[in-house]
Each structure stands twice: as structure tokens, then as C-alpha cells.
Design brief:
11 strands, 4-stranded antiparallel β-sheet, Rieske Iron-sulfur Protein, binds FE2/S2 (inorganic) cluster, alpha+beta
Length: 174
């Protein structure tokens, strides 16, 4: 009889240990799920933020802008600053086909898109490849301190006649 009692106690002890183990596993799963949910909530409260370069920026004094196309501001601000005999203007470095970034080929005096081969004159007007329209220009003006201020928030489209708008260029004699 005494041996039966021990066996029963041992059996009970076994059940208790198993119960304790599954209880602990249950709690662990609960805590894990709660932590994951909490992390999700925190992630929701602090979403990804893309830091874009400012849309308004200065590019120096008109007299310092050399004839032709300057790539100085292309990588940081995504524009070329261009000067011809009459005007200084800012071309936005986004291909009007599917949005790639063209390259300025000074030897050939043209912008060439590496994606599908569209070509644009220094003026921004397209002349080869699939691009359906010229590059866009950004607003540019002489700011109070005499420097050129480019504003990419305002864009000017050649096909809409907007390159005639005085806000789309600075007359070089200004
Ligand atoms: S994106 Fe420039 S040619 Fe296609």
C-alpha cells in the first residue's frame, strides 16, 4: 500500500511539473505576443520619415553662373543651373519618360537619359528617344541678398507655354 501511495504521489508530482511547464510556456507565448503587439504600436507611432532636400535653395550670384550647364546642384537638389545668352534657368533632373535621372554630356551638348535613351537639348527640349515632352523648369529668381533662389515647388512646362513666365528664368542682365 505504501508503495502505491508513493507511486500516486510521484504521478501527481509529474502532472504538477507538466502543468507548471505548460503554464510557463503559455505565459511566455502571451508575453511574447504582447511585446510584439506593443512593438507594432510603437512602430505605428513613429513611421518612416524620408528626409528630402529642401525645395528652395540658393545657387549663388548670377554673375558666378558660367555659360552652359552646371551640374553643381544636381546630386544634392536634383537640378541643373543653366545659362545661355539671355537667361539663367533651373532644369529639373527628372526624365519626362519614366523619371530616371539624365546625364549632361558636355561633349555632345545634350542631356542623355541612361534608361531608354531620351535626349534633351541644353534648353531642356526633348529631341530623341521616348520622352514625350521637355524637361521641366523650376522657379528661379534673384533673392533679397542678390543670390539666385530656386524653388522646386513651382514647376514650368514648355508644352503649356509656361517657359514664357518670368518666374521660370532670370534675365541675365537683371
Ligand atoms: S526614363 Fe528616361 S528615357 Fe525612359
Amino acid at each position: 500500500m505504501a508503495e502505491d501511495g508513493k507511486a500516486a504521489e510521484a504521478a501527481e508530482g509529474g502532472i504538477d511539473r507538466r502543468s507548471a511547464l505548460s503554464l510557463a510556456a503559455g505565459w511566455a507565448a502571451f508575453v511574447g505576443a504582447t511585446a510584439a503587439m506593443g512593438a507594432g504600436v510603437v512602430r505605428f507611432l513613429f513611421p518612416n520619415v524620408t528626409f528630402e532636400p529642401p525645395q528652395q535653395f540658393k545657387v549663388g550670384f548670377p554673375a558666378t553662373i558660367a555659360m552652359g550647364v552646371s551640374e553643381t546642384y544636381k546630386s544634392e537638389y536634383g537640378v541643373w543651373i543653366c545659362r545661355n545668352d539671355e537667361q539663367i534657368y533651373a532644369l529639373i533632373a527628372v526624365c519626362t519618360h519614366l523619371g530616371c535621372t539624365p546625364n549632361w554630356l558636355s561633349g555632345e551638348s545634350k542631356f542623355k537619359c541612361p534608361c531608354h535613351g531620351s535626349g534633351f537639348y541644353a534648353s531642356g527640349v526633348n529631341f530623341e528617344g521616348p520622352a514625350p515632352r521637355p524637361l521641366e523648369r523650376a522657379a528661379i529668381k534673384i533673392d533679397d541678398d542678390g543670390q539666385l533662389l530656386v524653388d522646386k515647388n513651382r514647376k514650368f512646362l514648355f508644352e503649356a507655354g509656361q517657359w514664357e513666365d518670368p518666374a521660370s528664368f532670370v534675365s541675365f542682365r537683371a
